[in-house]
Amino acid sequence: MICFALYAAARATNRCYVSLLKPWGLTYPQYLVLVLLWTHKSLSVKDVAEHLKLDSGTTSPLIRRLEARGFLAKERSLDDERAVIVSITEAGTALRQELAHIPSRVAEATKLTLDDGNSALSLLREVATNLASTPLPGNTPAERA
To answer: What angle, 0 to 180 degrees and rounded to 10, lies between the N-to-C axes of helices 90-98 and 28-40?
Structure first.
């Protein structure tokens, strides 16, 4: 079943990142927030959550911990006081160079050729998109009958 293969691959990938990020005291989700902000420089907390497919209850503590370490800065949006904008700091930008080797180390650990890795990435994106856009059946008595 595909569910077991996806689950095993996700767990193995997570373990690999955890091991590589340990010297910096970063978690894998924290790393994902940093990667996102290295690309976008600043985003609303809501946008960070949407990009990473996380809820705000998970996103806010990640951002708070990264802010406490000086990697991110938070401020209220000038356009909408309800929105909080998160920006990468100089320390967060400097960390990018220190962690630049991590994606290639993970890719090497998969032992996939470049073509196979690109094919796997394409298929995983397709699976994620398809699953996200497919209405899931409910669990109502009428649907179980």
So the answer is: 110
Global pTM reads 0.86
Q: CB–CB of 84/45 below 8 Å?
A: yes
Ranges of the chain whose pLDDT falls below 70: 138-145
Strand partners, 84: 76
d(CA 41, CA 87): 6
- pLDDT tens-place string over residues 29-61: 999 999 999 999 999 999 999 999 999 889 999
Closest CA to 29 of 68, 55, 1, 2: 55
CATH number of the domain located at residue range(s) 26-99 in this protein: 1.10.10.10
Per the CB < 8 A criterion, the answer to whether 74 and 63 are in contact is: yes
Q: Among candidates 29, 95, 109, which has minimal Cα distance to 62?
A: 29
Query: In the chain, where are the structural domains located?
Result: 26-99
pLDDT of residue 143: 57
Q: Are 92 and 34 in contact (CB under 8 A)?
A: yes
Residues recorded for the chain: 145
The SS3 assignment for 16 reads helix
